[in-house]
Design brief:
With 175 residues, the chain is mainly β. Helix content is 2%, strand content 49%. The chain has 2 domains: 31 residues, no CATH class; 134 residues, Sandwich (Jelly Rolls). The longest helix has 4 residues. It is elongated and about 70 Å long.
């Protein structure tokens, strides 16, 4: 990606080909409001690495959470999740992972299929990833977090097994 500054008229040419006259430049910066659609406005990243064991079919927090305050209500938030150390400790138990925005599910069961890995007493599943593009429609802070549950009320589902780090990345994209 190339950004060109200058030319016959002082201007900034963005990678998508749009041109913005440098009269929009304020104190050597281009304001967020004149950036073209699709521009990354900010990035937030969080890591959590404490093992969590849970033996209920009602979801609970994995500990992985991140907060972002969108600059514009028209922005999209690209969410990239690497939920690591996913495991189960019993026969026919699955790990059900979900993504929440401000306490409500927006991506349910993204780890459910990965949880059914066979009938052994213990299965290490590894990393379960997800990418989701959200439209929160607000300029207030937004909390994204993952939750998980066991598909059996008497068998452990595990995340961050052996304290391996899970990550969540939030990218605000100009709408």
């Amino acid at each position: 990606m190339t950004t060109i500054i200058g030319g016959t008229n002082p201007a900034v040419t963005f990678p998508d080909g749009t041109i913005q006259n440098t009269s929009a430049v304020v104190g050597s910066s281009v304001p967020y409001s004149v950036l073209p659609t699709g521009s990354v406005l900010q990035v937030v990243n969080a890591t959590y690495s404490t093992q969590v064991n849970y033996a209920s079919s009602t979801s609970t927090d994995t500990g992985l959470t991140a907060t972002i305050t969108p600059r514009f209500s028209t922005s999209k938030i690209l969410i990239i999740i690497d939920q690591n150390g996913v495991s189960k400790d019993s026969n026919n138990t699955g790990v059900n992972l979900s993504l929440q925005r401000n306490g409500s599910n927006i991506l349910a069961n993204f780890g459910l299929v990965a949880g059914f890995t066979g009938g052994t007493v213990s299965n290490d599943i590894g990393t379960v990833g997800a990418t989701y593009l959200d439209s929160p429609g607000t300029t207030s802070s937004v909390i994204y977090k993952t939750q998980f549950a066991s598909n059996s009320n008497n068998a452990n589902a595990i995340v961050q097994q052996f304290n391996c780090p899970s990550t969540i990345t939030l990218m605000e994209i100009a709408g």
